[in-house]
Each structure stands twice: as C-alpha cells, then as structure tokens.
Recover the amino acids of this structure.
C-alpha cells in the first residue's frame, strides 16, 4: 500500500509521520505539505522545516503553495473552508498522478471532540454527532482519507513526542481565538476538563453511541420515509400519509434537510401541520427551494432561477463558472502517457467528434443520450434513477449538448458521456472536461 502523509509540521502530523511504519505496517510513504500563505514567513518556515525533515529521513516530499485568501474570495467561502478545499483537491490530484492508494491526516481524539461541539452548534442532527470517521472517501475530491489517530489524545501525542525528541513547529495562530475551533479548544475545553478530566474519553464514547443511533435512524427512514410521498410524484409529500407515520417530524426533517430548509422553517411547517387550521396555500422558502402546501400535500419545488443562468456556450478551452461549479475545458493531444480514465468529475471526449462550440445547460424532461458502455437510448430521468440522485442533485445537473434546443445530451457532467464522443484508435486530440462538483 502506498500512502501519502499530510504533514503540516505541527506536533500531530509529525507524530503521525514518525510513527507511520507502526500505524501502517508494510506500507510505503511520501509526505505532502500545504503552504497556505496565511502566516507570511512563518508559513514559509514551516515548509522549509518539513522539506528538511524529509531529506533527513529519506522521504519524498511534495510541497505546494496556495493563495488561500484569493480562493476564499473567489468562492465566497471562509478561509478555513478554502484551505480544506485546496488541500483535498491537491491530495486527490497527487494520489491520481503518483499512484497513492490513500491520504493519511493527523486528526486526533481532541480534534474529533471539537468537531462534535461545532456540529452541535451548527445543528447538523445525528449525522454531525457521529464525529469523524477513521476512513472515508472525500465527497469533494474522491480521494480515500485515513485518520489513524482518532483514538489518540493530544496529551498522549505530546508525551510521546517529548519522550522521543521529535521536532515540530508550533502554529502561532493556535494560541489565538480567531477561528471557531480555536475558541472551543482554548476557551471551552478547559472548562470541560474542570468538570470532567476524562471529558475527551466521555465525548468519544458518546460519538460511538450517536453513530449507532444514527444507523438505526437511517434504517427507519429507508423503510418508512418513501411511503409518505404521493405515488408517482417524488416532489410531493402526502400530508395524511406523513401524519399517520410514527416519528413523522423526523421523517419530514430527513426529507427537507438536503434542500437547505433550516430549523426555523422546519418548525414553522411542523406547527402548521399540527394545527387544526387551513393548510393549503402556504409557501416556505429556502435559498434554492420552496415548499408549497396543498389541501393534502407538500410540494417541493425549485425557486425561480435567472434566465441568465439557463445556458452557457463554450467556444474554446478555458475555465468557466456555471450553476455554482467551476468547469475546466482542455483540448489536448492524445499520446501514450495521457490517462483516459474517466473517474467522477472528469469526462474525456474525442475533440473532432465534439468540437467547439457546444452548450452547457440544465436538464429538460425530454433529454436522452446513448451512455458510453451501455446499449441503446436512455432518458436522463431514468439515468438519474440509476445514479440515485435526489431532487437537489437533479436541479444542479449540467447537460452538454450542441445547442440549447437539442434534446440529445452529449454528456451529463461529469458522470456520463454519449457513445458518439468516445475516444477510439483514430482519435488525435481529446477534450477533457473537469468539474468542481462540491456543490452537487
């Protein structure tokens, strides 16, 4: 097994790097270091420290500098989220290019407890109360992530590092309280420790039990949730069927949560359904979706979208922003070293068969395609069923066609491509399309 170790130079990641042969017996390793350019010379010194340590240990080191502030402004997200996106996208690219089987990160038991508290404050329900998983596939980037230290406390790490004289760098921002996680670590957890010196162990046990409860809740929703929809209408909830179901408020929460309805809106809908007054004719709005009530149904509908977002014509290679995603279009010579693998998030087409211009747009009810590798014509609506996409995912789906009016979909970005665009022995150039699918 070939593992990429994410090493910042801090005490946790240096502990993981030093003990990697014990944590992953028989594996081979390399180091990846992200310089987020957030602390000036200190960030550069961290990078130099990690690179020097790798040379002394005989380990290959990959280092990359990011303009995190510019990326956060471009995406309209926090600096913390920007750093997360940048590092995991880069890790995924490194894993693909260099053949790593997984990326290991140094989140420990204290980090997991901090995540639990943050999720409680965000109102994530039982999903967030599970804490972090020891291994998972990153939804944004598709990379396999390992967390070997989740059962190791920060105190245990500090004691081992001191006993074995492992060098590390101290991040000066850890002492400040600018970030939410730091506030919990520096202000809240000391109070927890006064109340219960074993609070990390207690919270870790709670997360295990929350995960068990969440699994039970998942099973219940899978068995009961689909029974409340109007037959044949996946966007219409039967109010009478819903109210006859045990724990109907939880069922409603699970249905509406992916659409972005917050707790206040959910409570207003629950109050309305529990009243004896008139139900029909009410509207409840989330940023992209709305619930409209009828006499015995709740209709989940997309809010009106600007016509400016209806289509985008691609006339040449470049990066484009469409439906909240960054679409990268490249025209490349086909050669023996160019990988033609098409994982989720990437499509590759014969450039001569596709050609410029082409159109990106939302999907229409009559759209169809001949999916590569499958026989015959298939409606996109049936393809969505095969992919198990929810209504919000379908609303954000991007279709590629030769014109806005053409119902022959040449691709569903970036999941399926039409058979007419497949690369064959006569292909000289390819068009590679990469989508940042984090908003799907």
């Amino acid at each position: 097994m070939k593992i990429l170790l994410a090493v910042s130079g801090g005490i946790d990641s240096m502990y993981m790097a030093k003990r990697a042969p014990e944590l992953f017996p028989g594996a081979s390793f390399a180091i990846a270091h992200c310089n987020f350019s957030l602390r000036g010379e200190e960030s550069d010194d961290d990078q130099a420290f990690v690179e020097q340590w790798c040379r002394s240990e005989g380990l290959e080191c990959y280092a990359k500098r990011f303009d995190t502030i510019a990326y956060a402004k471009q995406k309209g997200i926090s600096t913390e989220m920007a750093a997360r996106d940048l590092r995991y996208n880069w890790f995924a690219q490194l894993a693909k290019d260099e053949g790593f089987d997984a990326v290991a990160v140094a989140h420990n038991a204290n980090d997991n407890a901090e995540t639990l508290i943050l999720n409680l404050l965000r109102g994530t329900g039982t999903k967030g109360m599970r804490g972090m998983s020891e291994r998972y596939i990153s939804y944004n980037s598709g990379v396999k992530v390992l967390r070997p230290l989740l059962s190791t406390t920060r105190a245990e790490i500090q004691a081992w590092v001191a006993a074995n004289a492992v060098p590390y760098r101290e991040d000066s921002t850890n002492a400040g309280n600018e970030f939410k996680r730091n506030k919990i670590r520096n202000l809240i957890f000391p109070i927890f420790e006064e109340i219960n010196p074993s609070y990390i162990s207690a919270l870790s046990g709670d997360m295990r039990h929350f995960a068990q409860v969440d699994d039970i809740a998942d099973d219940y929703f899978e068995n009961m949730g689909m029974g409340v929809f109007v037959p044949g209408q996946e966007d219409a909830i039967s109010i009478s069927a819903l109210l006859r179901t045990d724990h109907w408020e939880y069922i409603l929460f699970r249905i509406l949560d992916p659409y972005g309805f917050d707790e206040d809106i959910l409570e207003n809908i629950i109050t309305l359904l529990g009243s004896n007054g008139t139900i029909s004719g009410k509207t409840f709005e989330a940023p992209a979706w709305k619930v409209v009530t009828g006499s015995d149904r709740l209709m989940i509908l997309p809010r009106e979208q600007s016509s400016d977002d209806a289509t985008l014509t691609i006339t040449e290679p470049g990066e484009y922003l469409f439906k909240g995603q960054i679409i990268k279009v490249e025209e490349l010579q086909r050669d023996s070293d160019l990988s033609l693998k098409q994982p989720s998030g990437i499509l590759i087409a014969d450039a001569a068969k596709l050609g410029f211009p082409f159109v990106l747009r939302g999907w229409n009810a009559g759209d169809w395609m001949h999916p590569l590798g499958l026989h015959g014509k298939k409606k996109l609506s049936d393809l969505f069923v095969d992919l198990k996409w929810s209504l919000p995912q379908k609303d954000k789906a991007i279709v590629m066609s030769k014109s806005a009016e053409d119902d022959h979909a040449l691709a569903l970005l970036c999941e399926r491509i039409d058979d007419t665009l497949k690369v064959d022995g006569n292909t000289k150039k390819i068009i590679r399309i990469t989508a940042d699918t984090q908003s799907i």
The chain has a mean pLDDT of 88.
